[in-house]
Inverse folding.
């Protein structure tokens, strides 16, 4: 865990821990390369302008990610968090001086297809990958306490949006349907959508409500750490794990090139 390339102190982490005001992106680094690196950097730049009102030095970000990744076994999960160690809860509009926190963790092992519980929940500013994860993770906790693996969010109109830390896609009639409700446009989802289009697979973004689930042949979730993973069940209703398109989805994502850091 390094702040601007050096070990971070507890005092410097205090504002982030207590105020939880910042934004981040998470990427999987393999052999010093990242799928969709430019999308991760574009996200950090846009979110920094919105959250902190200043520009972010992306060359500096790349340098710090390279430094952290080089010191860890490959592949590795790298998270870049942008926050102001001097953030004042009473004066959030004060001129920000955000700094770059880089943390690493091992790549998760293979996990079985999850069972999802549907809950009504909408993240604050879902278009921003901000560090305010309390509500989303609380819903994950509730889902697991009820015997599921994770939570699937719907808005107040019963439209499906996303999960706590992932996007979801559905397989229907040989194509992919991405839910159109407000949610974070994840890097993995965007890369996969482009790859499937190039492969001749039809993809659409449309409103999907819980009443549409019975018409879906399969479902999968996407995140940068694990890539696409099939979903076993939603609210106890079993979904196919061997639909041919799920194999295509995994193959096309695995074939995506790594952008050098």
């Amino acid at each position: 865990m390094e702040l601007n390339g050096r070990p971070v102190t507890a005092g410097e982490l205090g504002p982030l821990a207590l105020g939880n005001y910042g934004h981040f992106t998470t990427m999987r680094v393999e052999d010093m390369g990242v799928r969709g690196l430019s999308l991760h950097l574009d996200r950090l730049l846009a979110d920094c302008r919105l959250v902190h009102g200043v520009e972010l030095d992306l060359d500096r970000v790349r340098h710090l990610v390279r430094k952290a990744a080089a010191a860890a076994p490959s592949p590795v999960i790298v998270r870049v968090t942008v926050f102001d160690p001097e953030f004042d809860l009473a004066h959030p509009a004060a001129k920000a001086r955000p700094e770059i926190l880089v943390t690493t963790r091992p790549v998760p092992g293979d996990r079985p297809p999850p069972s999802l519980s549907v809950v009504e929940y909408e993240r604050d500013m879902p278009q921003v990958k901000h560090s305010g994860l309390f509500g989303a993770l609380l819903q994950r906790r509730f889902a697991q306490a009820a015997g599921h693996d994770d939570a699937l969010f719907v808005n107040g109109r019963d439209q499906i949006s996303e999960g706590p830390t992932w996007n979801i896609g559905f397989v229907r009639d040989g194509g992919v349907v991405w839910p159109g409700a407000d949610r974070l446009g994840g890097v993995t989802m965007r890369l996969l959508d482009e790859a499937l289009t190039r492969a001749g697979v039809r993809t659409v973004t449309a409103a999907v409500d819980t009443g549409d689930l019975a018409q879906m042949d399969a479902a999968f979730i996407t995140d940068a750490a694990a890539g696409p993973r099939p979903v076993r069940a939603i609210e106890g209703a079993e979904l196919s794990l061997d639909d041919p398109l799920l194999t295509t989805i995994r193959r096309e994502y695995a074939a995506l090139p790594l952008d050098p850091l």
Q: What stands out?
A: The CA atoms of residues 63 and 261 lie 8 Å apart. The chain has a mean pLDDT of 96. The chain has two domains: 2-106, 115-256. The helical segments are 10-19, 37-51, 58-70, 134-145, 187-198, 244-254.
